[in-house]
Amino acid sequence: MHRVEGKVAIVTGGASGIGRGCARRLAAEGAHVVVADRDEVGGQRVVDELGTPHRFLALDVTSEAGWKRVVAETVKQLGRLDILVNAAGIAIFKDIERTTLEDWRLINGVNSDGVFLGCKAVLVPMKAAGGGSIINLSSVAGLIGVADAPAYCASKGAVRLLTKSVALHAARSGYNIRCNSVHPSFIDTPMCDAVINGAPDPAKARKAFERAAPLGRMGQVDDVAHLVVYLASDESRFVTGAEIAVDGGLTAM
Ligand code: NAP
To answer: What's the pTM?
Structure first.
């Protein structure tokens, strides 16, 4: 229960789904967690469940000024910053013929620009703390193509290689900051529910999601959160620039 004892973490998208699960597991393992999300009601609810010393800070990840404020507030209130989990994200499922430039910019603004701004914003306080760990939520859609999600695939592919670039720069600069990407398949969260419920036959869509992974089920939030705790902890001290699938075997096929 002490795998990240005393470390300070910011978790974006912490109001819901995978981010919420990561906030809860990091807190259970001893971290002091800042839940950062644009959903103020949901984010505050998560922090109320977690109790002291955890905090909620409102953040739109597409805002550079917002990132500066949240990072400064975190260091002011909790004294340091050791871990960043970039979990905020959005999805639109439309093929290339139906995807508009507005869709493309919206998805890439949150999923790609948001992660870029986050990685950039935390380097100074992590250096001051003597090191740190950045964990970026990409997707299996950052490893393989999905016909109905060109903008989402592009944004998650960007996260995959941004992660490796940050990892190499930090390693060569001697910062003791690691950066890794996590690639889930279908995880049972409100994001996936929205896709399933938007399908013409939701029960059929859920079955298809379950059958997509050789392990024969959708992932649970904790399947991802356990990996994130490992990457956040010193157990993974020799792991950087890695892309780790948590996908029930989907990308092994
Ligand atoms: P989720 O349940 O929808 O949670 C995402 C959270 O991010 C929500 O609280 C959302 O707030 C917040 N958010 C969205 N845009 C934001 C912004 N601009 N600034 C700050 N917060 C913002 O989604 P999830 O399924 O947990 O997904 C988490 C991450 O995992 C995403 O990056 C997603 O792409 C990735 N992922 C998910 C799956 C999956 O199957 N679920 C698979 C692979 C990868 P609102 O509710 O206000 O939008």
So the answer is: 0.99
Report the nearest atom of ligand 1 relative to the CA of 191.
3
Ligand 1 atom nearest residue 218's Cα:
40
Of 124, 140, 136, 127, the residue nearest 240 (C-alpha): 136
> What are the pLDDT digits (tens) for 87-104?
999 999 999 999 999 999
Residues 180-206: tens digit of each pLDDT: 999 999 999 999 999 999 999 999 999
Q: pLDDT by residue (tens digit) across 58-91?
A: 999 999 999 999 999 999 999 999 999 999 999 9
Best of 25, 34, 37, 112 for a ligand 1 pocket test (most atoms within 8 Å of beta carbon): 37
Residue 175 falls in the annotated catalytic set: no
**Secondary structure (3-state) at 132:** strand
Instruction: Mark residue 233 as left, alpha or beta (left: phi above 0; alpha: psi -120 to 50; beta: remaining).
Output: beta
DSSP secondary structure string for all residues of 51-83: -TT-EEEE--TT-HHHHHHHHHHHHHHHS---E
Residue with tokens 């060109």: 150
The ranges of the chain annotated as CATH 3.40.50.720 are 8-184+220-246
Type of residue found at 9: A
Looking at 16, 46, 123, 152, which residue is catalytic?
A: 152
What is the CATH code of the structural domain delimited by 8-184+220-246? 3.40.50.720
Separation of CA 172 and ligand 1 centre (Å): 31
